[in-house]
Amino acid sequence: MAQRWTANVIDAVQQRAAPGGQGVLRTSFRRNYADPNEVAAVILGGGTGTQLFPLTSTRATPAVPIGGCYRLIDIPMSNCFNSGINKIFVMTQFNSASLNRHIHRTYLGGGINFTDGSVEVLAATQMPGEAAGWFRGTADAVRKFIWVLEDYYKNKSIEHILILSGDQLYRMDYMELVQKHVDDNADITLSCAPVGERSRYAELHDFGSEILPRALHDHNVQAYVFTDYWEDIGTIRSFFDANMALCEQPPKFEFYDPKTPFFTSPRYLPPTKSDKCRIKEAIISHGCFLRECKIEHSIIGVRSRLNSGSELKNAMMMGADSYETEDEISRLMSEGKVPIGVGENTKISNCIIDMNARIGRDVVISNKEGVQEADRPEEGYYIRSGIVVIQKNATIKDGSCRAPPGRRDGFCDNLCAALIVVVVSRPGLKKRSGDGRRLKLEWLRLKVKARAGSISSK
């Protein structure tokens, strides 16, 4: 981490070194160091999350589990804390109950302790004179709560606003970005990740398409190129691949870093218990019961239960919200019902198993036919980009086989905009004797496309 403290504005001091005025004219500079106490973060947690459906059928995208025990919202939140930024707003809108609950338990209910900081949830609300209360995009989400940011500008000594996405996987020191923003004397700084010519990322209809093109012409807009690991969790395929990559040795991205840890809800669960299991390249979360099973290149979430003879390969099992006792399991099985977890002799591959799923005995879940798209909600599953997704709370009965007919033509998203973070400075920041005007951002209908790491406007 770079040193961070507040210094005076860049100052040039002229000095004659030799007596008689014949010395060399020297100029020294003092750098204006960015202060994390002058930065507030806004995390965008709204949106319908259609690209991650059915994982977002009952939750917001930032509340989707990742890596066994984390949620996507933990990524920007932890990056903020590790960067020394502890004034955070989370803007929510769609299916926000699970997200709100996780934020409260983790960051407001004693999970993470931080001094002189705050985490505030800003839910979508109808404003006076507006017909609808829903956010119409990321820029509109910030616009509707501009009065909150203005209040922070006036009363909390905030000079810069970080605008963060809630559906990306990366580790970043935001203060390095803010420092470049200050050094460049910029109005707006974008953190960008280089991508390929034909990327799968779709065109972004958010800040990129709302305000940036005009800013390119009228303001000092700078780019901060982020070259470390970054993954946009925007589709089922990218979500699945990002999770499977965590199992590789060595992984491209690592949650385990004692200097910059990732935080999540403290669950106070016991260690995982395994009995005669074969485990290879896997992440096993806490509180699991694994009995005579085989796990390969898979992620097992909290409170998961795998019974004798079950096999998981290239799979992500999100786990359960609560335990079922041995008596409850025996009663369910005696009634011909399926307990939470994976039953005996069940074989699962290339699959995402959402929370609280009940998968019976002698079940085969695979996609050997290469089906790309299929909707079977009445049977408890979907197929997206060739990945079988078992719905949350779904029940797959004993002896079922999940490899149905469906659309076999592949598909991909080819346009790309890789905007990670946006930094905006308040008006008048560079002119301390400013006119006292209210904060105004340029909310204009404009279009921007980012291809192969470059930005252009139309």
UniProtKB/TrEMBL annotation:
Keywords: Allosteric enzyme, Amyloplast, ATP-binding, Chloroplast, Nucleotide-binding, Nucleotidyltransferase, Plastid, Starch biosynthesis, Transferase. InterPro entries: ADP-Glc_PPase, ADP_Glu_pyroP_CS, NTP_transferase_dom, Nucleotide-diphossugar_trans, Trimer_LpxA-like_sf. It holds the Pfam family LbH_GLGC. It comes from the Eukaryota. It is found in: Plastid, Amyloplast; Plastid, Chloroplast. GO terms for cellular component: amyloplast; chloroplast. Its EC number is 2.7.7.27. Pathway: Glycan biosynthesis; starch biosynthesis. It catalyses: alpha-D-glucose 1-phosphate + ATP + H(+) = ADP-alpha-D-glucose + diphosphate. Residues 41-197, 200-248 form the Nucleotidyl transferase domain. GO terms for molecular function: ATP binding; glucose-1-phosphate adenylyltransferase activity. GO terms for biological process: glycogen biosynthetic process; starch biosynthetic process. Belongs to the bacterial/plant glucose-1-phosphate adenylyltransferase family. This protein plays a role in synthesis of starch. It catalyzes the synthesis of the activated glycosyl donor, ADP-glucose from Glc-1-P and ATP. This is glucose-1-phosphate adenylyltransferase.
